[in-house]
Write a structure and sequence with these properties.
- The protein is of the alpha+beta class and 206 residues long.
- It is 28% helix and 22% strand.
- The chain contains six helices and ten strands.
- It has a three-stranded antiparallel beta sheet with strand order 3-4-5.
- β9 and β10 form a beta hairpin.
- The longest helix has 15 residues.
- It is elongated, with a radius of gyration of 24 Å.
Length: 206
């Protein structure tokens, strides 16, 4: 190993590799991150030397290196396969919307976090709310394979009519057959008002 490689190894500033099973509390999040409630964006704060491993260069050196590269920069900006922003803290992957909620409320959410307008990258606090898994699935846009153009409506080939059905608590509930798709969608909409309530999504695009 060359001197340069040794210096790089000892001077690494990735605290997650040295903090074993560290619980990431809302208090730690507030120390590490600035959250803009109006834009939904997160930014790295300057990090104190106590969060870095002691090495030949010392913790102060590690902190200066990290802060020089990261302080003030956007945080948790990577996108996962579902369109959510995320990033690592102490080598633990955290979704940006859950971090934003924890910073704002002072506690981690007990359930899932729903994006009210359906945009999974819009982490403004006014666009976030706690939801159960069943509630969260209610607030989904029109499926890409929907052929009617209306949520809850599909063509029933055998009957030669439009069928309305609604998914609730993991099960599809049959709502009837209709000669026109608008009437079928109306049946779905009435049922969604009762079952999905404030989590109802009529199929609006994101």
């Amino acid at each position: 190993m060359t001197a340069e490689q040794l210096e790089e190894l000892l001077g690494k500033v990735t605290p997650g590799e040295w903090v074993l099973k560290r619980e990431i509390t809302p208090e730690i999040l507030k120390e590490f991150l600035d959250y803009n409630h109006d834009t939904g964006l997160l930014f790295w704060k300057e990090r104190a030397a106590k969060w870095f491993v002691d090495s030949i260069q010392g913790r102060e050196y590690a902190a200066r290196c990290w802060n020089g590269r990261m302080a003030g920069k956007p945080a948790l900006t990577a996108l996962d396969g579902h369109g959510y922003r995320h990033g690592n803290i102490f080598n633990q992957r955290n979704k940006a919307h859950r971090v934003a909620w924890a910073i704002h409320t002072g506690k981690w959410p007990d359930n899932e976090i729903d994006h009210i307008n359906g945009n999974r990258q819009d982490n403004r606090i006014c666009n976030l709310r706690e939801a159960t898994g069943s509630q969260n699935i209610c607030n989904v846009p029109l499926r890409a394979d929907n052929t009617s153009g209306l949520k809850g409506v599909s063509w029933h080939k055998g009957a030669g009519k439009w069928m309305a059905q609604i998914k609730f608590n993991g099960y599809y509930r049959y709502l009837g057959l209709f000669t026109d798709k608008e009437s079928a969608h109306m049946a779905w909409s009435i049922a969604a008002d009762k079952m999905h309530k404030e989590y109802k999504n009529d199929g609006r695009p994101v």
